[in-house]
Design goal:
4 helices; Jelly Rolls; mainly beta; eight-stranded mixed sheet
């Protein structure tokens, strides 16, 4: 056994005059080099009204939404294609999911350097949702001669650029991920397959605001949902809907989900991090609004205060294939805090939450239907299971 002597010298602290160690952030450097307009907000009342600027890489105008937090595992590219226009061809070593905000058009894809003449094209319109396979070349076309196309693409570019530290590799790698895509003719046909736990596997969803959803009783008040598996990506997305006069249970999970309202006449989200909710923020909805969950300790809760059912799309990162896609953020996202999970049950929420909701309903001429779940509700009994309307 080697014994350390009592006269061992301790290294001295660095002396004054030495510089602090700093490391360049490849993602931040890429944004700077692109010269693209960047937003660091987490709430956007209307995706259609976000001001864009020139973005040569996209062949038109665009902007990047990215909260200034290195723990956020994704960003959002807002892109507009002019009438009769098209984007620049590109391929990259990060995943992305595209949701079409407005307009209609088509996308052409092909494998770089392999059978480039075997190109595939598929059409889309406002409400379409699809993924481009990893590192596959693609180009988007506006099908209208009068109106621009606007879409968002939520990506995992930030961690991928930081992992490799070489953006030439990110945009110029020729490797073909044939296990993800090998030119299948029906890849973007819209066909899908349903699995247990509401998992829907498909590479193209023609109209996300209208696709069938399935019961999710754990989140409460008659809500329905589909967890999406697309393009064999690590990124995971889901669509949720809840009835008139109801709201979901508050919960928290990892940062970064981008929530886009697909349908509904009125509603809002509450976000807070402090136990006394002294930092609580209210984000009002309309169709096309987007709320980003900014941190992993951020509780959030979604409310339908309008006269029609409300549906939203959540675009988020995955957990490197280790997560069972159950609760939109891990097994704990739909399990009570009392059981070690991340969800606040209705009976445990502060009464102020429900009081705010009832006031919002009155303002929109709607009736609260939470009596079956909230004892102090002054409304009526509404849905009592995930299948009720």
């Amino acid at each position: 056994m080697i014994m350390l002597g009592t006269d061992m010298k301790v290294a001295e602290a660095p002396k004054d005059g030495l510089k602090d160690y700093t490391k360049v952030d490849p993602y931040a450097e890429w944004l700077k080099k692109e010269g693209v307009k960047v937003y660091e907000e987490f709430y956007f009342p209307s995706l259609a009204k976000i001001e864009l600027g020139p973005w040569p890489r996209k062949g038109g105008n665009g902007a990047v939404i990215h909260i200034a937090n290195r723990h956020i595992p994704n960003d959002c590219h807002v892109v507009e294609i002019k009438p009769k226009g098209k984007s620049e061809p590109e391929h990259h070593m990060y995943e992305l999911t595209i949701y079409v905000v407005s307009g209609h058009g088509a996308t052409t894809i092909w494998q770089n350097g392999k059978d480039e003449k075997r190109r595939q094209s598929f059409e889309w319109h406002a409400g379409s949702l699809f993924c481009i396979p990893l590192n596959v070349c693609y180009q988007n076309f506006n099908g209208s001669g009068d109106e621009p196309v606007r879409y968002i693409a939520v990506t995992n570019a930030p961690p991928m650029m930081r992992l490799f530290g070489d953006n030439e590799f990110i945009f110029n790698c020729d490797y073909i991920f044939s296990a993800r895509y090998s030119g299948e003719e029906d890849y973007f046909s819209g066909k899908g397959k349903l699995f247990t736990r509401r998992i829907w596997e498909s590479n193209f969803i023609a109209n996300a605001p209208d696709m069938p959803l399935y019961g999710w009783k754990e989140r409460g008040a008659g809500g329905i949902n589909a967890m999406l598996e697309m393009a064999n990506n690590n990124m995971k997305n889901h669509i949720s809907e809840f009835p008139v006069g109801t709201y979901k249970k508050a919960h928290r999970h990892g940062p970064g989900p981008h929530l886009v309202l697909l349908s509904g006449t009125a509603g809002y989200s509450l976000l807070w991090t402090k136990e006394d909710r002294s930092d609580m923020i209210k984000c009002d909805w309309q169709v096309g609004s987007m709320v980003i969950i900014p941190g992993d300790n951020c509780f959030h809760q979604h409310f339908n205060s309008g006269s029609t059912r409300a549906r939203y799309l959540a675009l988020r990162s995955g957990d490197m294939g280790l997560e069972t896609p159950r609760g939109g953020g891990g097994e704990g996202a739909d399990r009570s805090l009392k059981e070690g999970g991340w969800q606040i049950e209705y009976e445990d929420e502060d009464r102020e939450i429900h009081e705010i909701f009832e006031k919002e309903l009155v303002a929109h001429g709607a009736r609260c239907k939470m009596k079956a779940f909230v004892p102090w509700c002054t409304g009526e009994v509404g849905p009592t299971s995930e299948r009720d309307t």
